[in-house]
Write a structure and sequence with these properties.
Arc Repressor Mutant, subunit A, DNA-binding (chains A, B), homodimer, mainly alpha, 11 helices, 221 residues
């Protein structure tokens, strides 16, 4: 194998191990053994576990950011629901590593890992703005989108801790949460009210937004 | 000064400095100077900056957790709004230190600091459950409360970054966000629907929940 090919293979093996267990429980010996090479050869390609972890995290970050890309076609609610499905696929595939990373701590908290987490959040933020047809978000819109992204993260982390709620329900709930947070903000702000009207204008009668309204109406006494 | 008195004074001086700037920008020399003692004397009480930082963070955590305590009297919306005011008071007083801590990174991310952050989140979670009259939260209720706590954190962090929205508006918005997230969850779950009815049953016509409903109705075409 060539140098770059071997590096890429090691990153793949390491990402698989770092995804399935908390990174501080994964040793270089284990990575070497899973890759079928010697421990010194791992160190030939990566100076230590942290640099290999960061390379694996970089690949995972690019993978996740890529899953946010969604064609600008059809109703917004259905687009967001498809993204949520791909997001939960990712969270499902990388569960223990995702939890350890997002909960922070010495094994996973470096300025590089924080920058990678921020780059994924920023990619999600920018994708959502393009679907909303906005280039410069006013302050309240930025707040709604960024705080909803953090809500999606915490919802995924709570789901991973025991998986007590079916993930399909949470994917749809997060779409509804976005609409609900936008609606609260719209109650304060004309920009957000205009955005909300755009969001719901092309929603079909059987789409997720209409379903939410139906469910909420059924709660009324 | 006695040993314990001196330790407490140093913690207070350090907390003040760690609150006003990112902790990695604060030196032991500066803390010694602000406390009016020599650098070696600081090391006599604390082995290093990290242990002093952790002691300061422990004091701040207890302070913040204490602000969640609210008498079990009057409508729920007004109680939560009073807690939100005290929460933003805290965030305002400790702005740069709060941001640096919650954004993580090597200067502030240790297992001790993470445990302190978790203890504050847990205190908030338990306080909310007692106000809802719940001892064992079902899975969906736990999700709503815990994910709303993370929404409150991210809202405070976004506010600190430029303070472009009046904090009083965000304090009220977070109360509304709680109701909105509970309403979305209630659309899926009988326990949450029953809880929502309890929440709104004693709300006055001029309380925050009624205000939200009025604002939302005014959005309708």
């Amino acid at each position: 194998m060539g140098v770059e090919e071997r590096r890429q293979q090691l990153i793949g093996v390491a990402l698989d191990l770092f995804s399935r267990r908390s990174p501080d429980e994964v040793s270089i010996d284990e990575i070497a053994s899973a890759a079928g090479i010697s421990r010194p050869l791992v160190y030939h390609y990566f100076p230590g576990k942290l640099s290999l972890y960061e390379a694996a995290l970089k690949r995972a970050s690019e993978d996740l950011a890529g899953r946010f890309a969604e064609p600008h076609e059809g109703p917004l609610g259905a687009r967001l629901l498809r993204v949520m499905r791909r997001y939960f696929d990712f969270v499902d595939e990388h569960g223990p590593g995702f939890s350890a990373l997002m909960r922070g701590g010495p094994a996973v908290g470096s300025s590089t890992t924080n920058a990678l987490i921020d780059s994924v959040r920023q990619a999600a933020y920018e994708q959502i703005l393009t679907h909303l047809g906005v280039t410069e978000a006013p302050a309240r819109m930025e707040l709604v989108v960024r705080s909803w992204i953090s809500l999606a993260e915490s919802t995924a982390l709570i789901w991973l801790d025991g998986r007590r709620i079916p993930r399909a329900e949470l994917e749809l709930q997060l779409v509804h949460d976005f609409a609900a947070l936008a609606a609260v903000s719209a109650a304060y702000d004309a920009d957000m009210a205009a955005l909300l009207r755009t969001m719901v204008k092309d929603e079909p009668a059987d789409g997720p937004f209409a379903e939410l309204v139906g469910r909420l109406l059924s709660l009324a006494p």
